[in-house]
Amino acid sequence: MTTTPEAVAAAERCTPEFRRDPHAFYAHLRTAAPVCPMRPPHGNETYLITRYDDARAALSDPRLSKDMYGAMDAYRRIFGDSSVALDDNMLNSDAPKHTRLRRMVNSAFTPRRVEALRPRIEEIVQSLLDACPAREPVDLLPAFAFPLPIIVICDLLGVPPEDRARMQHLSTTVAQTGFGAEAKRAQQQAEEDLHAYFTHLITAKRERPGDDLLSALIAVRDHDDALTENELVSTAFLLMFAGHKTTAYLIGNAVHHLLSHPAQLRALRENPELTRAAVEELVRYDGSVESATFRYATEDVEYSGTLIPKGALVQIAISSANRDPQKFDSPDELDVMRPGNAQDAHLGFGHGSHYCLGAPLARLETQLALTRLFDRFPRMALADPAAGPRWLEVPFPAFRGLAELPVVLDPAE
Question: Which keywords describe this protein according to UniProt (predicted)?
Fold first, then answer.
């Protein structure tokens, strides 16, 4: 395997080989080119960071900006003009704007507030499992892994139940578009539809506010002027999008890997108190966030002896950092009893000021999903273990998730 910009660009195009096993590729880069220049399809000069220590430092490096307006030309070449209106949020900003926007929604995602959602999440989990066929193959992604977090986040935001499927469809279109003309048109239309939807929903909630997060944000916007109107729309989109995609893929990845590692599943079933630690290990081993969202260098920056020039884009390979043997013993092994598996050891939820706001909710949803699923269907098995997993092929390796998860929940003896 050669380490060249062209080789990385091939990985960026998400070839089936790369999608099947990105970890072997990242292992090579960590040794040969830990900060590797790329030529991705969008044409912007980009550097990929793969080592744990570098990744952790880069995630909180103020020289690597998240403010998309500072790199607007590059941003438009990658995402187009239609994305700008939806990306005026905390994910794409630096302090003090990031601090202000994050403060507006932080109270809804504190561990205490999230724990109060446990009964409702339990109810949703049981209802979804009730609807699943037990003796015949079922794709657990559309039947269980995706509906659970979309219902939870829509409840939290105040999105009506009849609109959940539309939200999921539109956000999937936004997440999985490529660089072709037809794909870009689909992406633009989906983004315009989402912007129009949340604009309409905000108008409706101004007239009839409810006991939900979006109504609370509207009240802040209208009374304190702490949010602009576009920040309000964009924040609603971000919470909906980020609040279900990553959790859904995490649940799918976790179920697949536990079923593929029966000794690990058996250890978890015999020791339910391991569930929290097991979720952290599953996030580390093959979490749903493969790469952090783009940053760009506001000045020349050096990592591992490589100069990242001012203006270059930077991608941080979370999946690679979480398999770095300099940080984790036997990193390519799944071990639900891994010692010292502290919640801040892996970078699956990020690090620094942009640490995932919804991490407590994602953890709780995943813990309950796994616990109730395997308690209710202890003999669950992959529908066709010999077939191997089929992973998503996406234009940017941002998400790491399965395209399908066919299982039999209660196979015949």
Answer: Heme, Iron, Metal-binding, Monooxygenase, Oxidoreductase
